[in-house]
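pinging the channel bc i need a second pair of eyes. not urgent but kinda urgent?? the chain im working w is below, pasted from the shared doc
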Amino acid sequence: MIKLQANKKIVFAGISIAVLFFVVYRLFWHKPAVAVIAVKKEIVQRRIHGPGTVQSKVPVSVSAKITGIVQKLNADQGAVVKAGDLLAELDTAELKARLESARAAIARARQDVEKARASVTKAHAGLVLAQSNYKRDLEVFNAGYISPAYFDLTRAQLKVAESEYAEALKTVEAAQAVLVQATAEAKATEATLDYAYIRAPMDGLITARTAEIGDTVTPGVPIFTIVDLKHIWVAAWIDQARIAHLKEDQPATIRLRSGRAFEGKVARINKEADTVTRELEIDVMFDSLPEPLV
């Protein structure tokens, strides 16, 4: 019994010494690893997010300049076109008939002018002859070799020749006026005929086509909508409370619905907020145009 108690004391003393040794070790000898970070000065970036849509800065509506029936469609939505490309054609049968009639009128007017000029030449020759006869008979009449009645006839012939020459000149002027009018009408018809061919006003992408073959189109009603691919941006909506942190030409990141991200910059900040959402439109231009735009 006495031996068992002695053993317990020895075990207790050993445990006490081990605990004391562990405490002393932790306090004086053990040095745990500590992560050290160097302090440096950096700018804290503020990130502002907002939903947006891909838009064109320069959308253009293409419409007809004259009323007509669509005869051909040479382009459709999604097509990339160049300035001057033929997009659509209107029915030109009536315009071509008018142009042929105008050209025929020009031909007739030119013939009339030539005839009138020939009449002027003839009348001028008659006038010269009448003037010569009058001058000769006047000398003879003054000398008393011819009667007054004969001289009156010569004088009357001169007046007729002068009248015929003046009338011939007027006929030429009238024929030339008709020719000028016919030429102007032909040019106007040619211009109208050219309006039947609807062409792209610029390089770009067709985003909409609203007419079909057989439709009657009128001036001002859009047939196509074209956007300039060189000026594509994202119109984003930002809460007006955060607008103070934005400025034009500020770098931005555009993340499309596909998840792809592109760099850009703030191109324009709208000054008027939506009265309901209190958001302003911010337009962000792509640094390089993504392909495709999704």
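so The longest helix spans residues 93-143. and The chain has a mean pLDDT of 84. — does that match what u expected or am i reading it wrong
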